[in-house]
Amino acid sequence: xxxxxxxxxxxxxxxxxxxxxxxxxxxxxxxxxxxxxxxxxxxxxxxxxxxxxxxxxxxxxxxxxxxxxxxxxxxxxxxxxxxxxxxxxxxxxxxxxxxxxxxxxxxxxxxxxxxxxxxxxxxxxxxxxxxxxxxxxxxxxxxxxxxxxxxxxxxxxxxxxxxxxxxxxxxxxxxxxxxxxxxxxxxxxxxxxxxxxxxxxxxxxxxxxxxxxxxxxxxxxxxxxxxxxxxxxxxxxxxxxxxxxxxxxxxxxxxxxxxxxxxxxxxxxxxxxxxxxxxxxxxxxxxxx
Length: 289
Fold this sequence. Notes:
The protein is of the alpha/beta class and 289 residues long. It has helices at 35-57, 59-87, 106-113, 126-133, 204-215, 218-221, 254-268, and strands at residues 95-99, 139-147, 151-158, 163-167, 170-174, 180-184, 193-195, 224-229, 235-239, 245-249, 274-277, 285-288. Pfam families: POTRA_1 (PF08478).
């Protein structure tokens, strides 16, 4: 009798417990307690960090943008101020003041340029002002100054007479540049007569006389009656009253000659009728007349 095989035994494996299913029937994982808050806090911190990094990397461009905006604002403000200065009637010319006028008629100068009254200071026509003032022969130079809100000051430097020359129109008073300041039928008092022979005020002889006259001390220049120059190397002076003469020679070393002449005249006395020869200033000569 064959032995009967026993029925094989089937081993059962305990099944893995399944997680509770969701409404869809799919299993879900349970979140640990408090996990949602940590995730949200981490995300918030992450966003904060990103914003800080963005600000840090864009700081230079933001500063550059603010710099441009500031520069544009300054330009706009300056343009507005310039427009006010140019076109505002508040800064229009209302007063003209003339300084330094002695021989020149200040009222005549004011009248010559009063066509500028009412014009904004920034729009004054300085070309027209120059043209008007150049018509005054006694004005050697001038400068203008604006004094806000509405004043123009004209500073005048007058021409100074150096002597008188004889012309076909009479006695012409001239300045060192040979500009005729005035003309009269009678020789003006207190001004030296310049004798140049056939030469004129545009000659080297006239330049030599001018150099000598300007080199003289005021105390001696006021006593010169006649200044003669046949050439640039032969300047002679005749003093008022005594008729004393001064042989000057050329205009070279005029400053030294003026010092030597001053000492000679002090030694001889004011009323000496002599001839002072300072043409060689290191060897001056005094001759009786």
